[in-house]
Amino acid sequence: MDIDISPNSLHVYQALDSEVRLEILEIISGETVTATELAQRMNISKAAISKNLHILEKANIISFKKNADSRKSYPVMNIDQINIHFPQKIFPEYHKKAYDIPIGNYFAINHVVPSCGLSSESSLISKMDDVNAFFSAERFRSQILWITQGTIEYIIPNELPSDSKIEMIEFELEMASEFPLSNNNWHSRIGFWINDNYIGETELPGNYSDVQGNYTPDWWPEKFSQYGLLKHLRVGELDTSIDSNSISNVKISDLNLSDSSRLTLKMSVLPIKNDVYGGLTLFGEHFGNHRQNIKANVYYSD
């Protein structure tokens, strides 16, 4: 049963505002008893029992059924719960919109510096260290992408209902630093922006090639990047975090996303010190250790 706090629901509240009636409900929830038997058990007059049963029946909490020979009737529960709806939603119901973004489906890429390149599951796209490869139509087949410096931006449409509110947004992607060939101890700093709002940064500890990636093709040279770390970036009600560790105080309310027609994620290689850049490698579903592209989840309320 669903009720609210309007006068239309008052009879339900009144029906429950009695120790006698609550005891009646407790008994008939587990047993089949007549009004006479209730009166005897509760040591109350049958008239008083009948009056209280009538109040519960009027509130549609109970009804009466007859036994097999129709000679006796007994009260039964009509409901097993009552939900009260208050005017203001303190804990709104969340919905989720999920997106799967291939790593080659970037919206913009700028200031790329070699070493850099793209490869599909079966072959290189153009040549190693050819910046023009990032503007090729073949880039959409990319399953691994690497840059030493630069910025890359992905875009997803804001397909939420016009009156909805974005409560949280998260991205999940497999990533590593970038070093010519590879280096398991090569650190990199990566900054993140959502809709051009800076939200924080993380450090990637290496560009891994100690073992072959679970999904890295056999033809890929073993001394090249094999896999990355699966990083979980989340902007929520309290802060921005990577893998549940807070990286900034930026909250979802700071971004004003609900009024935007699109949502963008930008990543930029930041200097470790002076002019030293650790680079960025991204892995698609057919490279690395995780069978996935970039995943984006947008949580919203009505």
TrEMBL record:
It comes from the Bacteria. The keyword DNA-binding applies. InterPro entries: ArsR-like_HTH, HTH_ArsR_DNA-bd_dom, WH-like_DNA-bd_sf, WH_DNA-bd_sf. Keywords: DNA-binding. Residues 11-85 form the HTH arsR-type domain. It holds the Pfam family HTH_20. This is MarR family transcriptional regulator. It comes from Weissella thailandensis.
